[in-house]
């Protein structure tokens, strides 16, 4: 099997760069791949074998199909339906959290404005999810 990757579904280049910085801080030695919207992410999932991704970081506010709708599509995917999905969003609405968890999200984290706080949260995520934290 090829090396696993982390799939980040987020249209913000700044947020993707923050994820990459956190992966480096957490000594993650696997590729971090970005999909800027749900359509691109679905294409990546459709073209990947089972086990290609360790987990997915998913934003709520995506252009086109939103993150919640996309998560529901992922959970129906014949190959990647059980992929761990961590929602990372700016939404502090408890209804959003409940909706994502009911749709099958494995975790829900709120993005913070402060870079240091965001990095701390992301490092913790990388250290928690199976296969993600690998010392290089």
What is the share of helical residues?
A: 25-40%
User: The biggest beta sheet, please?
Assistant: 5 strands, parallel
Contiguous low-pLDDT stretches (5 residues minimum) are none
- Structural domain count: 1
Strand content: 15-25%
Strand order in the sheet with the most strands: 2-1-3-4-5
Under the CATH scheme, the architecture is: 3-Layer(aba) Sandwich
Instruction: Return the CATH topology.
Output: Rossmann fold
Gyration radius over CA: 14 Å
Shape: globular
The CATH superfamily title: Response regulator
Number of helical elements: 5
Which oligomeric state applies?
single chain
Estimate the mean pLDDT confidence. 87
What is the succession of H and E elements? EHEHEHEHEH
Text of the CATH class: Alpha Beta
**Structure classification:** alpha/beta
| Structure summary, number of beta strands | 5
How widely separated are the two ends? 19 Å
